[in-house]
Predict the 3D structure of the following.
Amino acid sequence: MKDHPTSSQDHGTPAMNGAESVVRSLHAAGCEVCFANPGTSEMQFVDALDRTGLLRCVLALFEGVATGAADGYARMAKAPAVTLLHLAPGLANGGANMHNARKGRVPMVNLVGDHAVRHRGFDAPLTADVEAAARPFSDWVRTASSPATFAADAMDALAAAQSRPNKVATLIAPADLGWDAGGVVAPPPETAAFAPLDATAVEAAAGKLGPDTLLLIGGTALETPDAVAQAQGIAKQTGATVLAPTSNRRFDRGAGRAGLAKVPYPINMALEVLARFRHAILVEALPPVAFFAYPERPSLLLPATCDVLSLTGLDGDGPAAIAALAEHLGAAPHLPRAVLPPPPQAGAIRPDTIAAAIANALPERAIVVDESISGGRDIWAATQGAAPHSWISLTGGAIGDGIPMALGAAVACPDRPVLALQADGSAMYTIQGLWSQAREGANVTTLIFANRTYQILKTELFAVGANPGRSALDMLDLDRPTIDFVDLAKGMGVPGRRVECVADLQLALVAAMETPGPYLIEAIM
Amino acid sequence: MKDHPTSSQDHGTPAMNGAESVVRSLHAAGCEVCFANPGTSEMQFVDALDRTGLLRCVLALFEGVATGAADGYARMAKAPAVTLLHLAPGLANGGANMHNARKGRVPMVNLVGDHAVRHRGFDAPLTADVEAAARPFSDWVRTASSPATFAADAMDALAAAQSRPNKVATLIAPADLGWDAGGVVAPPPETAAFAPLDATAVEAAAGKLGPDTLLLIGGTALETPDAVAQAQGIAKQTGATVLAPTSNRRFDRGAGRAGLAKVPYPINMALEVLARFRHAILVEALPPVAFFAYPERPSLLLPATCDVLSLTGLDGDGPAAIAALAEHLGAAPHLPRAVLPPPPQAGAIRPDTIAAAIANALPERAIVVDESISGGRDIWAATQGAAPHSWISLTGGAIGDGIPMALGAAVACPDRPVLALQADGSAMYTIQGLWSQAREGANVTTLIFANRTYQILKTELFAVGANPGRSALDMLDLDRPTIDFVDLAKGMGVPGRRVECVADLQLALVAAMETPGPYLIEAIM
């Protein structure tokens, strides 16, 4: 499936084509990496990226790997990566991880090729509405309209991605605009300002703090250990409780940092934890919402009688707001007493023993990518006192972000070991990411939680009183045949091993994280 | 990620819930298979399918496998399968193969779960606009609005899918409507009629037939060997030329049947083949369009001076139209002299030798699934005289339909061997389909054309005069690391072997197609 330039005479001449103007502008604005799965209608970008050599190009074998890697990259680099995708079907393949990034307020710039303008009306086989396909998974969508304004469009996309809160921006690039001469490099966008802090909100928040007050902090505040420590200091002084949302873009935590509990995922636990609050103060967070609707349970998880004050919205500077509140109260930062990791265990691999193994094996400055779903439920608590680390997790509920995010995090931080906690069912959505990990020599240890079932769905079906028969279980169990993840990894150039007891798991984890390059451990649960 | 019924008291009582009414109605209307990748918001369907036992449920580990399998199933069963998908991100994952089915005018009914109605406004993590995500890849979209009308909506979806030409229909199913009581089984839709044949068009077509006339036939005509033979008879009598479009839903061909050449994919070849025609008569076909825009080449491939007559549109009965035209002319069916397959070759595996091996190895009644892209260019001609077979191929250009279509074809026709001709780059988009092939014991031989590159893109980049450097080649080559498809297959329960010469390939093909169940052959090119 391929395309020619529509103005081949412009190609290779001193006149800059549209694609080159876009690449040069993105680089000048600080973009360093492109995660790509190009087709014919993106060859002008492949050519421009190649000739200029300005961005590092990482090939993905499936678009969901490219968008998921861009997600993980941006969370760790605190700057967007660019993706390069092919027409509406290719964009759709990347949609689930665009969704996850969008829900996590992660910045992303997608360049999506389209047919040449004059070819659009003919209903060629690959024709579909690219803008319409982009919109459900993007905060900002535009189709470029001329080579001269193409780079300016890209800078508008970048500005949108970096605006507060960060966003997913998709620029659609008709093939001819990329090949045609007349490209003009555009200046980088202004640095996006946070929404200003409202001094009266600080005072109002201070007046509400007490033992029945929840201080819910998200966004950049969780990426700033000092801000978390200040929030804990506020809590210590006022008796309030600090929590983080259930799903977060990134959390920098571990020994020597003030940790936080999260609003629990299971609805009954969440309602129980939140029931006692009469006031809630939100910092870069929204009122917590249940993942799904449950019978005779509310969608909003705070008590209906709880009054909610937004100290900063999602577009605000959380650390500055927390600092202002702490100053107003005269509260000093506070580190709650460190909780040591549980001692290493022996025996079978279960959620509790795997949590202890991880907490003890985690090296200094690791990046933990969490898509462990049901098998990983004990790890958050167990790792509070583990070596300091960054924790990035699934934010939009669309499984299949873990392996790609680990790739992107490793590209962003080549000097930090990455540990991907990966449920087996979820791993299969974007398993192709292992190949890109091998190609890039990404320093990722993938730990597969092989319970061989969509456990979370099975639990739920039982919980609603169904008595599932063979047909239902066949749609939830992954054990016929069992998947051999070590073979899958080997097939894509990633070495690995299978472990069946937790002592072996711990040894394997330590060895894998000490060794550069990708490795996969399949833990049979 | 899971959901509870919102009206649990209705579950398991004699009152039928919405989901059960949908399942019972689909079954009564002749639907037999559901390709599923469900999540929490589809548990009501998992439960209803399980309790009723009315549809065969096939689990896919990725949504593109489910929609691609539904595509392959419908092409062979000549009836739609149902898919079960999870919210907007899951739908998007299935979008590329919905696109391929849509471009091939293949019938498909997608059931896509959404949040319960009351939960929609809260921007929960998995919330996105499901209708908007469905529209670019569907001909028909509706969101169900009550348990009582839910089954009638499903029958409207089925009617749309089976209308002429066949269509992709997507019904969005809020979770509460499935769990709530009050479901009412709806009657099957009427059988869709073809658009009536225009007798004056038959007369007009007869008047235009001559040596400078193209008769281009597609759709159901290609699935009807008698119609193709009649078209060849018309050509013999009048001097006209019969061709098939480049990409087709299905073609029943081989020894003892009248074959057809296709409009070539490469634009220069297509323009050359079509240049001499002054008249074109279309039967279930549209005027041929180039895949992409090319410099100084038209998008429409017929000469601008060629007059075009549509004997039947895409909604017409092609075989009846051809029969009427043949009768009008007094033309008898004609089978051009059989072209025997080329003799088996020895030595390296190249496009010509692999074509000979396939033509000789193909068993009687095989189903050939063609996503071989550049490596398979010689196979169509070589197999014209091979044992009679059905040929189904990529119709929308969105790579990643081959492995899933092979699964679906095998489910539709368990007594027929399936041979999937699969380019290596394309295989990686939906490689998870091998696991479902293993689980279902699908009688599929997957032949991987391992040229270890996106060859078609590389050819194109060279053709436009680019002198690609390391960065460009890195985005087109798949050889660092090489992918071991035998390991990948083994990891998903499919046995396989690698072959490096064409004699071994031929032996491996014959053995694999004689042995029930899935098998994978990686042919190093």
Residues 212 and 276 of chain A are 6 Å apart (CA to CA).
